[in-house]
Design goal:
Distance between the termini: 70 Å
Bound molecules: flavin mononucleotide, iron/sulfur cluster
Strand order of the largest sheet: 2-1-3-4-5
Radius of gyration: 28 Å
Shape: globular
Number of helices: 27
Structural class: alpha/beta
Strand content: 5-15%
């Protein structure tokens, strides 16, 4: 027997009993022969018994971007060359993106050992050491899955993993995202099977309410309450939508779940559909996520084959189908009413609420929209009970939160932390702090709707309310760390430019107001040197005076969350980094050395050997001198393009 589908097809097991019979055959009334077959299949699927070495390769987008495909090809070639037999299993991402390409080796009867930063050049030595000599490739070992190998840490004791608590990401990077059998043997679909056997629809809603789960898509609305509204609607047709639009700059949590454990998402969606009484669902995923879409298609296909999606799911009278809708990647299409319009084939523009989608959503029918991470929490809640989940986290924020930790941090990646952990612990304990001996400056949390938080509030807890209090928000999970080389005016410019480009243009405060805000911010780092235009300088001060008032109007009068939160990055900058704004405004300096127009370029005469390369490259002939003597920059002619710094091979030009 190779797979559970063969069991299903041999029809010896009732569909209702299928999942528990496959994972727990001892308790079922089946022949001893079949029992033994299932037990041995389960051991294979769990990699407890195998005849050949197993090679797991992290092949999420991060792994592939680091060359996982090339590593896989190199491994295949090497195995062929040495005439070695081994099974290669592509997995998703375990979260430690900084260490990609990650390859795990498991020899028969041994622990699985993980190796990081593997390149094709490593492969001949790596295969010889790990498979031929059955030893450890110490140069690149990360850790083992379990204890017992001298000198090798258990992977969960590495600083990057130690403080994490994995619920959503429990299978990511561990099991194959391509195999329904592997998902089932690791506890998959047991939550679905449990509710179909013994929960009424209301029981499911109540359990989710009890858990205290709040939506992970940004707003943090209680998921159980949302389901209850939809459950209470009297309608023949209801819809369920998974929001996988994920547009926040710096965020990649949803993509990683879709690529690494898509079955968990689908199971959460089926449970949601059962609870509210929906028979049709959509996954709205941006087309820029081709790998995620490919894996979702494979997942849906396998679930249909197994009778887990479609008519009479697992022998019940419940029907549910899922379709993928590819979004074109407009940020505003993540807003739920715009997303609904987009699925209906209209231009993705938000609509005023109420009515809320739970009452009147897709094609006017009751619709529940939840985020990928929200759905990915559901199976664990059902398996362990709402009370179990409610015990994790803080008073108002239960469970865990997945963050995409990126920027100036030693170990970037995907981390899942219990609510209540502090921002400092995430940056320094999990992320390993700031690389290259630089100082921490800020963490940008909550995407364009969030804010930049300085060291003084780093002890804030990860909790919806606490983050709001300090001027940021949980958002969907972007967590961008910035060091002293980041200019906060520049950061504000980046987010406002993003918002300005992404505004759907429906309402004036968002469309025009963010444009004015961006103009004001753009004027701050302009030098005006060489021009006599006093009006420009006057406008700079006038703009700054009106900035906060303009921000308030945009917040109060915009229709959707995009406009309502657009000023947040600027406001948090003014709140925590006022000095930096003042340096730009009054001293005409950029302390971080980022705003080129405010920098003065100088040749360090002690280092310059007079090669003259910079003078030849300078587009404004601002560099003068004679060969073999130090050159000089004529400040009034310099247009601050930075070309001289890029050109000089001796680092003889500085800007500050
Ligand atoms: C401009 C804008 C963009 C949004 N983008 C997303 C997104 O990419 N993914 C997401 O799940 N929610 C996004 N949201 C939030 C959704 O509108 C909605 O609240 C969420 O999908 C509900 O799911 P949840 O309750 O599980 O969080 C966005 C909201 C706004 C205002
Ligand atoms: S706030 Fe902005 S994005 Fe939202 S509806 Fe108005 S113009 Fe469109
Ligand atoms: S910054 Fe540009 S314009 Fe100024 S001196 Fe260097 S190369 Fe010339």
């Amino acid at each position: 027997m190779n797979s559970y589908i063969e069991l299903l097809e041999s029809n010896q097991i009732e569909k209702k009993e299928f999942i528990s019979a496959c994972t727990n055959p001892e308790n079922h009334n089946i022949s001893a022969e079949l029992k033994n077959e299932i037990i041995s299949l389960n051991k294979n699927l769990k990699y407890e018994i195998h005849d050949y070495p197993l090679i797991f390769i992290g092949m999420g987008t991060c792994g592939l971007a680091s060359g996982a495909d090339k590593v896989k090809t190199a491994i295949e070639k090497e195995l062929l060359k040495l005439n070695l037999k081994a099974q290669i299993i592509p997995t998703g991402c375990i979260g430690y993106c900084a260490k990609e390409v990650i390859v795990d080796i498991k020899l028969p009867g041994n622990l699985r050992i993980s190796y990081g930063e593997i390149t094709p050049n490593d492969i001949p030595k790596f295969i010889r050491k790990t498979i031929v000599e059955q030893d450890i490739y110490r140069e690149k070992v990360l850790g083992s899955f379990g204890n017992g190998i001298e000198g090798i840490k258990n992977i969960s004791d590495l600083p990057f993993f130690r403080r994490q608590k994995k619920i959503v990401l429990e299978n990511c990077g561990i099991i194959s995202p391509l195999s329904i059998d592997e998902y089932i043997v690791n506890g998959g679909f047991s939550a679905l099977s449990k509710i179909l056997k013994s929960y009424s629809r209301k029981d499911v809603v109540d359990d989710i309410i009890k858990s205290g789960l709040r939506g992970r898509g940004g707003g943090g609305f209680p998921t159980g309450k949302k389901w209850e509204f939809a459950y209470n609607q009297k309608s023949e047709i209801k819809y369920l939508i998974c929001n996988a639009d994920e547009g926040d700059p710096g965020a990649f949590m949803d993509r990683s779940v879709l690529e690494s454990d898509p079955f968990k998402l689908i199971e959460g969606m089926i449970i949601g559909a059962y609870a509210i009484g929906a028979c049709f669902g959509y996954i709205y995923c941006r087309a820029e996520y081709p790998l995620a879409i490919e894996r979702l298609e494979n997942t849906i296909h396998q679930c249909e084959n197994y009778g887990i999606l479609g008519e009479n799911i697992l022998g019940s009278d419940f029907n549910f189908k899922i379709k993928i809708k590819k979004g074109a990647g407009a940020f505003v299409c993540g807003e739920e009413t715009a997303l609904i319009a987009s699925i209906e084939g209209k231009r993705g523009m938000p609509k005023p609420r109420p009515p809320y989608p739970a009452v009147s959503g897709l094609w006017g029918k009751p619709t529940v929209i939840n985020n990928v991470e929200t759905f990915a929490n559901i199976t664990s809640i059902i398996k362990n009970g709402g009370e179990w989940f409610a015990k994790i986290g803080t008073e108002s924020s239960k469970g865990t939160k997945v963050f995409a930790l990126s920027g100036m941090v030693e170990f970037s990646g995907l981390v899942e932390v219990p609510m209540g952990i502090t921002l400092r612990e995430v940056v320094f304990d999990i992320g390993g702090g700031i690389p290259n001996g630089k100082k921490f400056k800020a963490v940008q949390i909550g995407g364009p709707s969030g804010g930049c938080l300085p060291d003084s509030v780093l002890d804030t807890k990860v909790d919806y309310e606490s983050l709001k209090q300090v001027g940021a928000m949980m958002g969907s999970g972007g967590f961008v760390v910035m060091d002293e080389g980041t200019c906060m005016v520049d950061v504000a410019k980046f987010f406002l430019t993003f918002i300005q480009n992404e505004s759907c243009g429906k309402c004036v405060p968002c469309r025009e107001g963010t444009k004015r805000m961006l103009e004001i911010i753009e004027r701050i780092p302009i030098s005006y040197k060489g021009t006599t235009n006093k009006l420009d300088q006057l406008q700079r001060f006038k703009g700054i005076i009106h900035l906060e008032r303009l921000a308030e109007v945009i917040q109060d009068t915009s229709l959707c969350g995009l406009g309502q939160s657009a000023p947040n990055p600027v406001l948090s900058g003014l709140r925590y980094f006022k000095d930096e704004y003042e340096s730009h405004l009054f001293d005409r300096e950029c302390p971080a050395g980022v705003c080129k127009e405010l920098l003065t370029y100088k040749v360090i005469t002690e280092i310059c050997n007079g090669c003259g390369l910079c003078a030849r490259k300078c587009p404004s002939e601002a560099i003068v001198g004679e060969a073999k003597h130090p050159y000089t920059i004529v400040e009034s002619k310099c247009i601050k393009c930075g070309m001289c710094i890029e050109t000089c091979r001796f680092e003889a030009i500085e800007a500050n």
